[in-house]
Design brief:
four-stranded antiparallel beta sheet, 18 strands
Amino acid sequence: MNINYNDYTERAIGLLKQLIATPSISRDESLAADIMQDYIDKMGFDTHREANNVWALCHDFEEGKPTLLLNAHIDTVKPAATWTRDPYRPGIAYDRLYGLGSNDCGGGLVSLLQVFDILDRRDRKYNMVYLASAEEEVSGKNGFERALPLLPNIDVAIVGEPTGMQPAIAEKGLMVVDCTAHGKSGHAARNEGVNALYIAMDDIAWIRNHQFRRTSDLLGPTKMTVTIVNAGTQHNVVPDKCDFTIDIRTNEFYRNEFVLSYLQKHLKSECHARSFRLSSSRIDPEHPIVRRCLAMGMTPFGSPTLSDQALMPFPSLKLGPGESSRSHSADEYICISEIFNAIKTYVSLLDQLEFLRDS
């Protein structure tokens, strides 16, 4: 079967233009979800929808076969104030398609859908599920996490985030910890009280200088950064409370629960995690899909940015057109040639896979 990649690229670009022209800020993606559902219906697939998550199964889905998930998100961040173009007006200049969400991750979203259609027409030894998920940019509970229990059992996933079509086989996790240092108020002129700000400063100095022992070959060290500090009511009152927030990016050696317990042991301030949900992830470098990437000359790497991978209880990797450096930036764009090459690369990667499960 000959594949006209130009036709599939044109279809992908046409869909992406519709999505760019339809605002889909996280938690407000219903119109974009409508577009995806209608488009997939017209392709001849039976769609499923939960909140603003839309998915479909391949026509020859068979229980017992290994199952591949093709996933990308439909939501975007808010446009930066420095856009020089209308972020919701898709525009093409030479090879570039400009528009909010074009790179993150509209390119992966529309490319994977065309690949889903192409491979649905071919003999495979595995099932496929295509999922356009919501609320990825805010790690919302009405996004991937809400759709997950309704999906078939998944063996491995490709997440279409912009990676320059190189496989990100590991991803850092995220935990946000809110801390409170407690002191005792007093008059600043009389050197009274216990200054909560100084207690917090000691803790912050420890956080700044601490290094976790285990460093990942792909993700580097687990990193802690204090990003918000708030204390005091007026200049002559010793503060009895100081609040600060830590952004923690974990590698695969440290579970979020462990890191919080570790902080509680070493800091004088109270520490409370907002969530443990967003763990670091890593796929075995010997997994069949990674080995196939290597055979095609790709270079695996570790990604510092978070995605829906953090919520996937099965092996996954990020692989998509575009560059992460363009994400969330003004005048965001995806190259049409990147989408063309992504569709070809995905098909080459997946069409020759003999199996999806570890041997």
